[in-house]
Amino acid sequence: MDGLAQQYRARLEGLLGEPVMVDDPLITTAQAAVLLGVAPQRVAGLVRAGHLPARSRTHRRLLLSDVARCGFDQWISVAEAGAMLGLGQTGVRRLITAGLLAAHGRELPLRRNDVEVLVVLRRGWLTLSTAASALGMEVDDIQQMLRARRLTHTCDVARPVYRHEIATMLTARRQRLSRSVVPGDRP
Question: Which residue of 7, 55, 159, 183 has the lowest C-beta tally within 10 Å?
């Protein structure tokens, strides 16, 4: 067993109050939940989603080494993803449908890392109204630019505009204005 499995083994022995007699013992989902510091339903969700292999027909027995390697902290629920993204569950499901997040099961369908990356990416995305305000336009104008592909759509319905594209447009506008002003002329 590797170091992480040994740590879990030592914690299990402490919980049981006696030494474990086999190298890789079968443990219950309740024991796995205590070892992982989560609710038993969360462990059951890992089993149902296929992220943690069960070793009995009733899915209540797990190998300690599998629990140690399950990468429990890698998987999060839609509700947890929503909290990270500042969205409700419907908003997260919309991101899954748009292909911005990949679902991997029912109970704990999302990889934490994927959601963390999307959180960072979304900081560079703007709402229609924010983009319109920055450019001094109407929201309809921004929608038309997205349809005409003068702006690239992010695939996120809530934040469809890339901030860097708006910044590029603003820079180009400023450069045009500075070129149109002849030195020495003052309005």
Answer: 183
